[in-house]
């Protein structure tokens, strides 16, 4: 299999640095182009980066946001005692790498040497490097889809030259090349993971937290393990979406998710999740309630410091506090919900903790009212859990994502050739629209380097008043759009997504005009690129459709999955 061995090309050790580095990049790109399995891409990338940089050691780590840990996937080159080529459980808190967490933009590559003056303030890190026989190290963030995915770590011995600024630039180029290979490989192993992961933030989703909470409560009943929940809503998201647009709101959610991940990592084993919209939680097992409250307080402090943020409303509930019998996962969630509801109503900048208020505790009363309203026998294991956040519906992001992925996975081997980009996108568009009871869907194509988007496939599921008067307004063969006049669409074709709704101040006027012409109420659009060019999927809704609010990240993830594999031009 290509990539099984990583011979050192002669050009890596001979000739001028510029030529050597160019050859190294080309060699890495060619190797990754023929390597498709995720684990193999990671292994080959670490080996090739080490050779290209003249390092003694290289490793690649991934940021697991739900646990707040950097997990080492592979170690290459000289290994210290206890290190393994493919470690099973080598992790480091992401809080040890503030350059990655706190960056508002594109993180930079940085290096550290044991004799740097600033290291005198960090003797433990110096000792760890020396213990492993390393004198100089460099970290290059690996970015995938515009966010930090993980890092490339390189180290040299004391008898090797120190890393120079030009080395940092070269390491950044290598990391960018590695990110392209990882992005392609990840799609092959992503479908199952996506069903339990929030596509916008990378945290666990509601489905994952439901399953883990049930398991945690089973251990509580059996062994008396303390189970705690932190539930919070991001304040001011609707105002930000209305005044600055949903893309700005999404960035706030992503930054808060990063802080939630980092705070969850303070209690190893905790799971951070996004429940949907502006609602998040952290599930904690085995820690005293006071430790959980301390983490919730730190989370509130960090949220207040976020750019464009207004803090969070945070509630905490624990089986270790005086909250009465917790006979179900629902009961614990209702308690945390009620505490969060009280924090929201009082505009508290600190968490409200169930069972710790004045007697009688209003939080416990709210939780009882919610349970009485739901009734003793509800429709399912987590009935009406989110009383204070509104009812769930069939367009819940996790459910929608899993359903479309299942149809794509079921139909593709039978009816769609692996190289048929358009066929895969059609499956995504049609299933997504049917789940929303949408009016219509459109798939459009942009040639490489082009500026005119052409609709190549469409379907109308239900006629609107405008369509019924004059028939469909667009011909699927001739509909073309100059992207210079549609900035939101132009961004989406490059891998973004957006929601447009009539009357929403954040909607691009050009997109609102399209809604008016077609007689639609709202649309969700997302796109991406592959070797054939750019692609866009649009789903249109009317008054009978479910809400499309918050679904752009879901459609964006599904389009990314559909673009995986061979690329074919539309007919």
Structure description:
It contains 17 helices and 17 strands. It has helices spanning 17-33, 38-53, 98-102, 123-131, 165-194, 206-223, 237-244, 246-264, 289-304, 329-346, 362-374, 397-415, 421-436, 465-470, 487-493, 509-518, 552-562, and strands at 57-64, 69-77, 91-93, 110-113, 136-144, 147-156, 227-234, 271-276, 279-285, 312-318, 352-353, 440-446, 452-460, 480-482, 497-501, 522-530, 533-541. The strands form three sheets. A six-stranded antiparallel sheet has the order 3-2-1-6-5-4, covered by helices on one side. A hairpin with a 2-residue loop joins β5 and β6 (147-156). α1 runs antiparallel to α2. The two termini are 34 Å apart.
Q: What's the arrangement of secondary structure elements?
A:
Elements: H1 17-33, H2 38-53, E1 57-64, E2 69-77, E3 91-93, H3 98-102, E4 110-113, H4 123-131, E5 136-144, E6 147-156, H5 165-194, H6 206-223, E7 227-234, H7 237-244, H8 246-264, E8 271-276, E9 279-285, H9 289-304, E10 312-318, H10 329-346, E11 352-353, H11 362-374, H12 397-415, H13 421-436, E12 440-446, E13 452-460, H14 465-470, E14 480-482, H15 487-493, E15 497-501, H16 509-518, E16 522-530, E17 533-541, H17 552-562
Parallel strand pairs: 10-11
Antiparallel strand pairs: 1-2, 1-6, 2-3, 4-5, 5-6, 7-9, 7-10, 8-9, 12-13, 12-17, 13-14, 15-16, 16-17
Structure summary:
The protein has 571 residues and is of the alpha+beta class. Helices cover 42% and strands 20% of the residues.
């Amino acid at each position: 299999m290509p990539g099984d061995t990583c011979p050192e090309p002669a050009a890596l050790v001979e000739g001028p640095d510029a030529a050597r580095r160019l050859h190294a990049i080309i060699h890495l790109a060619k190797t990754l182009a023929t390597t498709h399995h995720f684990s193999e891409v990671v292994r080959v990338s670490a080996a090739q980066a080490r050779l290209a940089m003249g390092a003694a050691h290289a490793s690649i780590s991934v940021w697991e946001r739900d646990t707040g840990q950097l997990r080492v996937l592979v170690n290459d080159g000289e290994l210290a005692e206890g290190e393994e080529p493919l470690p099973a459980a080598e992790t480091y808190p992401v809080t040890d790498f503030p350059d990655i967490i706190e960056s508002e933009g594109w993180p930079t590559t940085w290096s550290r040497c044991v004799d740097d003056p600033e290291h005198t303030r960090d003797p433990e890190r110096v000792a760890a490097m020396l213990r492993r026989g390393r004198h100089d190290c460099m970290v290059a963030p690996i970015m995938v889809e515009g966010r930090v995915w993980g890092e490339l770590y390189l180290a040299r011995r004391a008898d090797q030259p120190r890393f120079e600024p030009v080395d940092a630039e070269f390491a950044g180029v290598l990391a960018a090349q590695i990110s392209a290979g990882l992005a392609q490989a990840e799609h092959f192993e992503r479908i199952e993971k996506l069903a339990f992961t929030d596509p916008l933030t990378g945290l666990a989703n509601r489905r994952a937290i439901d399953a883990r909470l049930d398991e945690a409560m089973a251990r509580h009943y059996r062994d008396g393990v303390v189970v705690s929940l932190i539930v919070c809503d991001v304040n001011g998201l609707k105002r930000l979406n209305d005044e600055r647009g949903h893309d700005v709101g999404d960035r706030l959610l992503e930054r808060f998710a990063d802080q939630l991940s980092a705070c969850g990592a303070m209690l190893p084993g905790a799971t951070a999740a996004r429940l949907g919209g502006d609602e998040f939680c952290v599930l904690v097992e085995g820690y005293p309630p006071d430790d959980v409250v301390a983490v919730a307080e730190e989370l509130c402090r960090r949220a207040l410091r976020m750019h464009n943020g207004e803090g969070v409303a945070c509630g905490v509930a624990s089986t270790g506090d005086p909250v009465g019998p917790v006979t179900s996962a629902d009961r614990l969630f209702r308690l945390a919900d009620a505490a969060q509801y009280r924090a929201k109503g009082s505009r508290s900048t600190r968490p409200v903790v169930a069972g710790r208020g004045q007697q009688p505790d209003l939080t416990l009363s709210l939780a009882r009212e919610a349970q009485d309203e739901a009734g003793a026998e509800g429709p399912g294991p987590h009935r009406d859990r989110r009383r204070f956040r509104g009812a769930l519906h069939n367009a819940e992001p996790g459910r929608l994502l899993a359903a479309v992925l299942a149809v794509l996975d079921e139909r593709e081997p039978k009816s769609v050739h692996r190289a048929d980009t358009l066929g895969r996108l059609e499956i995504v568009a049609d299933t997504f629209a049917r789940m929303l009871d949408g009016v219509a869907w459109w798939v459009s194509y942009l040639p490489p380097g082009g500026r005119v988007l052409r609709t190549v496939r469409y379907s109308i599921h239900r006629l609107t008043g405008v369509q019924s008067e004059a028939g469909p307004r667009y011909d699927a063969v001739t509909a073309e759009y100059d992207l210079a006049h549609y900035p939101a669409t132009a961004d989406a074709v490059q891998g973004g997504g957006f929601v447009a709704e009539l009357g929403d101040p954040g909607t691009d006027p050009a997109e609102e005009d399209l809604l008016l012409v077609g007689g639609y109420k709202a649309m969700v659009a997302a796109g991406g690129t592959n070797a054939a060019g750019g692609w866009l999927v649009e789903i249109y809704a009317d008054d009978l459709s479910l809400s499309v609010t918050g679904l752009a990240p879901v459609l964006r993830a599904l389009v990314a999955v559909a673009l995986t594999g061979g690329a074919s031009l539309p007919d």
